[in-house]
Recover the amino acids of this structure.
């Protein structure tokens, strides 16, 4: 624990987390309090840019050093995420498993824990979806607003972690955050108030402290996680982004097995045996085909 210091005082050093970034002004939460700082010009020269979620060192009232990042997303711009909660509704919109598996793979690739949150379970039986993802080893929460503990369970999984929510329009993100806000008591007011306003106008992200530790990230008016050219996974690395494939990798007849059409493929056998969910395997094959078509220059940006 740092002792309380005046961050503007000459010679002072402070370490904290950027919780907000607007127009070159960074809000840093530290053991000494919450302060706004600018960053040294050197970052711009190096093409580095401090991001929300970054751990930084502040010297003489200026952000002087970015501490190493665990991971980062480009859109929304966020560093050091621990977990991504994918909000998927059972009905209108219906689940799109290929899209979901793409996002999950990107999270795995960036070493962000994927978590599935199923909504509108009152409108359509969630059991088949839950079975697929539980079998895949991904944490699944089914939210039913008539049963408060199902909301509390989601709130509890946020404590002590840096989390972000994402999902299709209409999947129920705002509804969920509203419900969570009460059981979680997010500081600095309600996130949900910021959701749905100024949609697609701002792209900056913000971290909201969670009582008991941790943060929830939100991008005002924009909480959809986008895939873009930065989120491309090489075909050789793709199988490693499906956690339930792990026990079978290296077990195939051919060392360089792509697991798409080869004979004596341990992974394909596991699908036949019902050990790997078929829909997950199909997503892998679709993504593998897409990754095969990538040009080297598209991968360099990663
Ligand atoms: N029946 C039912 N309706 C729900 C549930 N969750 C959300 N809804 C409804 O679904 C609609 C969309 O929910 P929102 O929370 O606005 O969805 P969103 O993901 O925030 O959508 P965007 O703001 O477009 O990104 C609203 O009419 C909600 O009342 C649920 O669990 N059951
Ligand atoms: Zn194989």
């Amino acid at each position: 624990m740092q002792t309380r210091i005046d961050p503007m005082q000459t010679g002072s050093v402070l370490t904290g987390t950027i919780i907000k970034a607007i127009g070159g002004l960074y809000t840093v939460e530290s053991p000494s309090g919450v302060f706004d700082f600018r960053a040294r010009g050197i970052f711009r020269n190096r093409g580095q840019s401090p991001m929300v979620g970054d751990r930084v060192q502040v010297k003489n009232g200026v952000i002087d050093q970015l501490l190493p990042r665990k991971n980062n997303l480009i859109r929304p711009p966020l560093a050091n995420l621990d977990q991504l909660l994918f909000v998927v509704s059972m009905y209108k919109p219906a689940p799109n498993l290929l899209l979901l598996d793409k996002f999950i793979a990107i999270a795995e690739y960036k070493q962000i824990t994927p978590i599935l949150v199923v909504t509108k379970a009152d409108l359509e039986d969630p059991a088949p979806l839950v079975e697929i993802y539980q079998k895949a080893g991904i944490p699944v929460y089914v939210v039913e607003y008539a049963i408060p503990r199902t909301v509390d369970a989601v709130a509890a999984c946020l404590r002590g972690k840096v989390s972000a929510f994402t999902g299709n329009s209409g999947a129920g993100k705002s509804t969920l955050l509203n419900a969570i806000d009460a059981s979680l008591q997010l500081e600095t007011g309600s996130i949900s108030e910021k959701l749905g306003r100024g949609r697609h106008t701002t792209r900056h992200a913000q971290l909201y402290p969670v009582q008991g530790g941790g943060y929830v990230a939100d991008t005002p008016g924009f909480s959809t996680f986008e895939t873009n050219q930065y989120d491309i996974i090489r075909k050789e690395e793709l199988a490693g982004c499906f956690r339930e494939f792990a026990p079978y990798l290296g077990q195939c007849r051919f060392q360089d097995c792509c697991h798409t059409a080869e004979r004596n493929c341990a992974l394909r056998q596991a699908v036949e045996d019902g050990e790997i969910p078929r829909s997950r395997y199909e997503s892998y094959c679709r993504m593998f085909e897409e990754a095969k078509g990538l040009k080297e220059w598209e991968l360099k940006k990663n």
